[in-house]
Amino acid sequence: MLNSSLHIDVFFLSLRIMRCPYCNSTDSRVADSRPDIEDAIIRRRRVCNQCGAKFTTVERIQMRDLIVIKNNGKTEPFDRDKLFRSIKLACRNRDVKDDQIEKLVASIQRRLETESADDTVTSAQVGQMVSDSLLNLDPIAFIRFVSVYRKFSKVSDFKKIINQIPEDKDDAVVCKLPKTSLF
Ligand SMILES: [Zn+2]
Fold first, then answer.
1. How do residues 30-65 score in pLDDT, each as one tens digit?
2. Which of 16, 58, 142, 145 has a CA-to-CA distance to 98 between 20 and 30 Å?
């Protein structure tokens, strides 16, 4: 069951103006809502009152606005799309699907929101969570991600990290994702 605070978030999200992608009208009605608890999203099937077109909107449940403190001390808003893109890049040409990356990002975001006491997280925290998750998902993507995130400059940097990978991770994609513990 959704708890009351999430009801409020969803309520505010639903007040956002939705434009019909066909005629740009803001006059639409919700025909059907389907919450996806695991991914913390709600899919709404809408019907445009202007042109009759049907379209789907996806609303993400966001519990908090997180601020990321970078290594150089600068801050920036947590950007889940940027996180998705960096993981997708690490998974390029690997047997990892977009919805697996989406689940991984949702899981990381939920953990950050839960573990942060004051709405701030460090980029090191985010990087570590992504690394841990990718090691379980796909070891090659893990190596790629870590090499960028830790700014590897020498071959020996790769050797060190490869030596830390448990041998049972060596045979390709494992694809076991932690469930988001939202409710
Ligand atoms: Zn329309």
1. 998 887 766 677 888 999 999 999 998 877 776 778
2. 16
The count of residues in the chain is: 183
> 82 and 21, same structural domain?
no
Phi, psi of 115 (to 5 degrees): -85, -20
Query: Which structural domain range is residue 143 located in?
Result: 67-169
- Indicate the pTM of the whole model: 0.65
For residues 155 and 84, state if they share a domain. yes
CA 104 to ligand 1 centroid distance, Å: 34
6 C-alpha to center of ligand 1: Å? 30
Residues 144 and 72 in one domain: yes
Q: What is the pLDDT of residue 165?
A: 87
105-152 confidence digits (pLDDT tens): 988 988 898 888 888 999 999 999 999 999 989 999 999 999 998 999
At what angle are helices 139-149 and 80-90 packed, to 10 degrees? 120
Residue 32 CA to ligand 1 centre (angstroms): 17
CA 42 to ligand 1 center in whole angstroms: 21
> Domain count of the chain?
2
Residue 12 CB neighbours (<10 A): 9
Q: Give 144 Cα–ligand 1 centroid separation in angstroms.
A: 43
Residue 115 lies in a domain: yes
